[in-house]
Amino acid sequence: MVRESMDVEEKAGSYLEVRGVGKTIGTTPVLGGVSFEVGRGECFCVLGENGSGKTTLLRIITGLVAPTEGMVLLEGISPHEDPVASLARMGALIGIPAFYPNISAYENLRLFWDGPLKAADTHIMNALSAVGLADEKKKKVGVFSRGMLQRLGIAHACMHQRPYIILDEPTQGVDEYWTAKMRDLFRDMINTGKAFIITSHDFEFVMNLCSHVLILAEGRPAYVGDLKAIAEYPYYFHLRCSPADKAETVFTQVDYIHKRIRSGDEFYLTLPDGRASELVKALVTAGCRVHECAKKHYSIADLIRQRSE
Fold first, then answer.
1. Helix H or strand E segment including 222
2. 113 and 261 together in one domain
3. Are residues 65 and 132 in the same domain?
4. CB of 130 within 8 A of CB of 165?
5. Domain boundary, last residue among 171, 204, 227
6. Is beta strand 195-199 parallel, antiparallel or unpaired with respect to 164-168?
7. Which candidate, 234, 212, 233, 232, places its Cα nearest to that of 223?
8. Which of 91, 94, 267, 271 could be joined to 168 by an S-S link, Cβ 3.0–4.6 Å?
């Protein structure tokens, strides 16, 4: 989340801070100029097309990769200078989950448990239940589907209930039912004070969970800030109508269009889903011909293009 400057003590107490982070591999810059802050009880999303540097950024935040420039502070601790202390404050899932295939889901999580021994069973079973795998706890992980592996990876990231959860494409391979369940789980954890930093290609998932975003384009920030400022809804309407000037007049007379972009006789409009038919009726009543009215969901490319206009 983008914030005004605050004193060092407050930052060290409750924030993950990324300051001017960049990464060069060989002579090729893959990430540069990335800065943001995320506080406890917030969800921050990193958006970008494939190859934009999202996973590299998460690897830097978790201390798996050292930045070429800039720094990361997790409650005042650098994951590159003191990885033990910083990792004790975060749970993470980066890339495809990797588990031992010949032992059970429960046994895998038990191997990774590093909290108090007496609390292990309770935390592990709570995590498995949260992702719908409690009944599969004795099943060998080698027979798990891709979606089940992903959910087990999320259970692993969340089972210690650490204050910062870092997730790379958490809904990848997960069906719609469990995607909705994951969103509810994350929201509940955020409401208890956990901070989430996620990457995702699922824009509707992001819209229903995150308040602030970083959009990466070829490794550089294209936007950092309030998600609602660039997309109030996960969709927009594409209209093609004539005469376009008369349609423009109609659009200025209604109060439910939040954003309007015109290109010739084409319009890109942001408005509530339930008002689209009302708008088409107003256009026809005014004597306009509506050649096309299509509801389209935002892609990452749409958002990047919108920021460059």
1. strand 220-226
2. no
3. no
4. no
5. 227
6. parallel
7. 212
8. 94
Strand 28-39 versus strand 15-25 pairing type: antiparallel
21 bridge partner residues: 34
Token pair in block for residue 92: 């993470």
Burial tier of 48 (Cβ tally within 10 Å: 0-12, 13-18, 19+)? buried
Query: Are 109 and 80 members of one domain?
Result: no
Phi, psi (rounded to 5 degrees) for 160 = -80, -10
For 80-95, how does the pLDDT look when each residue is reduced to its tens digit (9 = 90+)? 999 999 999 999 999 8
Burial 231-252 (b: 16+ CB within 10 A, else e): bebebbbebbbeebeebeebbe
The answer to whether residues 240 and 294 belong to one domain is yes
Each residue of 47-78: pLDDT tens digit? 988 889 999 999 999 999 999 999 999 999 99
| Residue 305 confidence class, pLDDT cut points 50, 70, 90 | low
Q: What is the CATH number of the domain that holds 284?
A: 3.30.70.100
Q: What is the pTM assigned to this prediction?
A: 0.83
Q: How far apart are the first and last CA of the chain?
A: 24
- The answer on 168 and 76 residing in a single domain is yes
- Which of 227, 249, 276 lies at the terminal end of a domain, its last residue? 227
CA distance 54 to 215: 9
Q: Are residues 216 and 241 in the same domain?
A: no
Within 10 angstroms of residue 207's Cβ, the number of other Cβ atoms is: 19
What the block records as the tokens of 40 is: 């406890």
d(CA 252, CA 246): 10
- Name the 3-class secondary structure at 100: coil
Structural domains counted in the chain: 3
261 in the same domain as 251: yes
Q: Do 151 and 254 lie in a common domain?
A: no
State the residue range of the domain holding 14: 1-88+162-227
Residue 165 phi/psi, 5° resolution? -115, 120
